[in-house]
Structures are given as structure tokens and as C-alpha cells.
Amino acid sequence: MDIQIIPLFAAGVGFVSVLLAGYGLIGYLSGASDSARLKERVSGTAVKRSDALAAPLANAVKGAVDFFGRLGTKIGPTETEEIDKGRLRLIQAGKRKPDSYKIFQGLKGFLAVGLAGGFLAVRFLFLDDMSLGMTCFGAVLLAAAGVYGPEIWLSRKIKARKMAVSDELPDALDLLVVCVESGMGLDQAVDRVCHELRNSGPIISSEFKLLTLELRAGKSRIEALRSLAERVGLDDLNSLTSLLIQADAFGISVGRTLRVYSDAMRVKRSQRAEEKAAKMPVLLLLPLVAFILPSLFVAILGPAVIMSMDMFLQMNSH
């Protein structure tokens, strides 16, 4: 009798849980809409309901970011050289916020401790027969993954951004040549190219925008160009900035320098595309062998194998 009551009791608990969850969700949505209407009355401006609903999530994300920042301040390196190197890598990946380095270090520490602690908790709760050596090895391995995993992600982010800049740079140089040869100065040409490439080349456009802001703030052209090359970390852009600095120092025509270098960059981009196209047969070999050829063998040889099996079965029956 008691066994028959257990499913009914479980069903009742599930129904009550779903009902309470529904009431809680309705209360949360109504509270968010009421707070949005109250903000509209107080401020006199319209507040989107989606913004009011997303406010708790945004506050939670902000709290997590602040926690990572405080943690990174305590566990991060204290040497100025290491801090500058880490900040430069984040800048090259497109992360320019002042606290990005602290947040990144805090995230690494949190992942290391969290992964290792979670593994140890699972081991002592569910894996009692695991040896001490395997436990230590797994904890150290997961802690290393938490430390070096973000570094690998950051390296890939930097590499992808450099590749995007190398693809966008020839078009930017072509536009710079047109602007300079039409009578604009180099500073005005950079500003114009920045506005023209906002959609087609957002990364190089943002870098040129920052270069323009530095020039307007009073920074010399040589220092601004060197800062641009350092922020991106691309060899082609380093060579370009060196050529522009030399052209400015020796009075060489900037338009001619940009034209020669843009032609070289365009040829290099086409060669890179040809190189990728030449690698395609080798890259397609593995999926061809692993997926396509077995299917072909099954489709072609399958009927023959089935007929052979039937023939041998008939021979054995006789």
C-alpha cells in the first residue's frame, strides 16, 4: 500500500513545485514591469521592459566581473614588466578596458581553483575507489587547464585579430592612396578612411580612429604611428608605420610610399588566398577517408557481400 502511494506523492510534489515556479515567474515579470513603470514616472523617460527584465542579469554579470577584478588584484603578478606585457596582449586581442588585465587574472585563478575543487568533490563523493595518484594527477591537470586555457584562448584571439587586420589593411591602404593623392593630408586621410571602413573593415577602422584621437590630443605623428603598430602587433603594419615615419622624416612622397606598399600588400593577400586553396586537398583527405569512402564501400560492396552470404548459406543447407 505504501509503495502505491509513493508515485502519487511524487506527482503531487512535482505539481506543487511547477505551480510555485510559475507563480514566482509571474511575480518576477509583474515586479519588473512595475519597476519599469515607476522609473518612467520618476525620470519622465520611456524605459524598455526588456531592459527592466535584463537588469538582474546585468547586475549579476557586473558583480561577477567585480569579483574577478578583486581576485586578479590579489593573485596577479606584481612586476611592472609582466603587467605591461599582459595588458599589451589583451590590447592586441581587442580588450582595451582598464581593468581587463585584473579580470583576466582573476578568471584564471577562479577556473583553476573551481575545476580542481569540483574534481576533488566529485572524486570524494562518487569515486571512492580512485587511487591517490590519479586524484592528484586529475586535480593538477584541471588546475593547469584553468590557468593555461584562457591563455590559449587569448593567443587564438590575437591571431584571429591579426589575420583580420591583414585582410582589411590592403583596402585601407588603397583608400589612403586615393585620399592622399586627391590633396588631403595624412591625418585627414586616416580620419576619412576610418569613417569609410566602419562596416567593411571594423577592426582597422577602430585602430585608425584611435590613431586620429591620439593625433588630436597632441601626440606626435611618430609616437602615434608607433603606438598603432604596438597595439596591433602585425609585422606588415610595423613595416608600414616605419615607412611612413621615414617618409615624414626625409620628405619623401607619402602617396607614392603608400601606393607601393598597398600593391605589395594586395599581392601578399592574393598569395595567402592561393596558399589556403592549395592546402584544401590535403585538408579534405581526412574527412574523405573517414566518412565518404566507407559509405561508398558499403553502397558498392554491400549487395555483393549479402549475395555471397546467401550463397554460402544455401550451400551449407544442401
From TrEMBL:
<keyword id="KW-0472">Membrane</keyword>
<feature type="domain" description="Type II secretion system protein GspF">
    <location>
        <begin position="173"/>
        <end position="301"/>
    </location>
</feature>
<feature type="transmembrane region" description="Helical">
    <location>
        <begin position="282"/>
        <end position="306"/>
    </location>
</feature>
<keyword id="KW-1133">Transmembrane helix</keyword>
<feature type="transmembrane region" description="Helical">
    <location>
        <begin position="106"/>
        <end position="126"/>
    </location>
</feature>
<protein>
    <submittedName>
        <fullName>Type II secretion system F family protein</fullName>
    </submittedName>
</protein>
<feature type="transmembrane region" description="Helical">
    <location>
        <begin position="132"/>
        <end position="154"/>
    </location>
</feature>
<keyword id="KW-1003">Cell membrane</keyword>
<keyword id="KW-0812">Transmembrane</keyword>
<dbReference type="Pfam" id="PF00482">
    <property type="entry name" value="T2SSF"/>
</dbReference>
<feature type="transmembrane region" description="Helical">
    <location>
        <begin position="6"/>
        <end position="29"/>
    </location>
</feature>
<dbReference type="InterPro" id="IPR018076">
    <property type="entry name" value="T2SS_GspF_dom"/>
</dbReference>
